[in-house]
What does this fold into?
Amino acid sequence: MDIQLEKKKGIRKKHIPYIAGGALFALLLGWIVFGDHSSTLKIDARGISIGTATADRFNDFVRVDGQVQPITVVQLSPEEGGIVQEKVIEEGSPVRRGDIIVRISNSQLDLQILQAEADLAEKQNFLRNTLVTMEQDKLSNQNEKLQLELETTRKKRAFQQQKKLHDESLFAREDYLQAQEDYELAMQKHVLILERIRQDSILRSTQIDQMADNLDNMRRNVLLVRERKEHLNIRSQIDGELGLLDVVLGQNVSPGQKIGQINDLSDYKIEASIDEHYIDRVRNGLSASFERQGVVFDLVVRKVYPEVREGKFRTDFIFTGERPDNIRSGQTYYINLELGQPTEGIIIPKGAFFQSTGGNWIFVLDVDGKKAYRRNIRIGRQNPQYYEILDGLNAGERVIVSGYESYKDNQVLLLE
It folds into this structure.
């Protein structure tokens, strides 16, 4: 007789794989539906810098380093070339306007002076000889005039006698006509000599004026050449300090060559190079300041140079108040240049993250500080200390401001 076996209740061994597969499927389904799919990276919390977004005043300024320079620099350049014979004053010495700094010799200029003086002497001698000749011609003309006047008087008297005799029929008509013709010819000659004397006088006066002008020009030329001799002494144009003298004895210098400079120490300016990023915002009249030994000194932008070199443009600042007592040319001051008025907003400390993100996103820590999530933000202005946040952060949120070079494209950071 067959016996019917009772089926065992519960989970059997053969059911375990199916149950495990179902559980795994459920976990996978839950991870797909509810899980965090962001790429995650574990980092050491001790190696990062954390900043806090705060609602505060944003001061719109940039910090630049500037060097003290004399308010005016006058270049030393010879007007005449030559050989350096003597350095009268050394670098760093005080000078007064008109002081001789360098003496130069020029033998070619000496020859030009001698030639100009010789030409002047020759011209003067020629003028004297010409005047003597003209005076002799004038006297000769006067003598000829007198002779013709005498001849005209005699011819007139003879003509009058012949006319009287002719009228009384006591003399031949031919003699009368000859006397008349002789008298008329004498009168015509007298008119001609008067005209010649007048023309000679005009010509003589013109020639004398021209020669006198030429002589004056030659005299001025000699004076100018002699002044060129004086220009071989290079003098200071202002009161100040000889800041540079780049010549040696025996050196051949050319006209216009820069050989040194005079510094006007009556006042100072500060010359700074600023990143071209700010070239549209820096203009004349902007305020600036720097601190020296606990005292703040005020400046103002006097000149902005438009040329950009190696990513920077040059700017000059001048003092609007007191100067430091120990100010010297070449000193470096760190200047805060105000670019705009302070405004209220959200700010975060500056950090190396900006180089990787361009200010477009940042890692924001959660409340417990164990995780940091990538978030898009918008950065406005910046100063040496803070970034201005226009969108994406709230006051009190903490962010990672150190460099992101090793984070790649991870969306979540686990801080350990």
The chain has four helices and 22 strands. The radius of gyration is 53 Å. The longest strand covers residues 61-76. Helices lie at 16-34, 107-167, 173-230, 353-357.
